[in-house]
Each structure stands twice: as structure tokens, then as C-alpha cells.
Design a protein that fits this description.
The protein is mainly beta and 104 residues long. It contains one helix and eight strands, in the order E-H-E-E-E-E-E-E-E. The strands form three sheets. It has a four-stranded antiparallel β-sheet, with no helix packed on it. It has a two-stranded antiparallel sheet with strand order 1-2. A two-stranded antiparallel sheet has the order 4-7. Strand 5 and strand 6 form a beta hairpin.
């Protein structure tokens, strides 16, 4: 990747996405990185296909559902500077649904 600093968009896209870095666009083999900003009640769904996924709550709280399991009120910090984040691992071949319970 020739650019070492990637800036987010000024406002989220229609799906709430602020940053989208795929292994292909970054020139990496495995890791990608997306950041979403969701208002309370906002929702995003994502298919993992053949990749693993880690949902990391940067701030706020959300319900996260995958493969018939649901984790409620994931997230415990108001900002990225307020301690370690909460995260949920999603295995390959699944879809995940994330619904914001607060702005996140």
C-alpha cells in the first residue's frame, strides 16, 4: 500500500461506512478493515464468505447476531479513549447483523 495514512470520509455512506480497506486495495494478503458509524437503530449486515470477521465496538453499544446466536448490548465505552473495546468473532461462511442500540 503506497498510502500509509487512510482518512475516513467526512460523512458516512448510506450504509454508515466511513472507511473501507480490503486486502486487495491495501495490497495485503489477509486483513481488511471497515469502519461504520451507526445512529441508534441503524443496522448493517455483512457476509463473511471465506473470511473470518471480528466486530470491534469502537464506541457505543450494539446487538450482534450470527448463526442463530445473538449477543446483546455489546460495547462498554463512550469513545475509543475510554478503555479496551469489546469484540465478537464471526467465523467464515456466516452472515452477521449488527444493530446499534446507541450511536456507535
Amino acid at each position: 500500500m503506497s498510502k500509509l495514512v487512510v482518512r475516513s470520509t467526512a460523512t458516512p455512506g448510506p450504509d454508515g461506512r466511513l472507511v473501507a480497506i480490503s486486502p486487495e486495495t491495501a495490497g495485503w494478503k489477509y486483513v481488511g478493515f471497515d469502519v461504520y458509524q451507526l445512529a441508534k437503530g441503524g443496522r448493517v449486515e455483512h457476509s463473511t464468505a471465506a473470511r473470518e470477521l471480528c466486530v470491534v465496538m469502537l464506541s457505543g453499544r450494539a446487538d450482534i447476531a450470527c448463526a442463530g446466536q445473538e449477543w446483546r448490548d455489546v460495547g462498554s465505552r463512550e469513545s475509543v479513549f475510554a478503555g479496551p473495546p469489546d469484540a465478537v468473532y464471526i467465523p467464515p461462511g456466516n452472515s452477521v447483523a449488527i444493530e446499534a442500540k446507541s450511536g456507535c
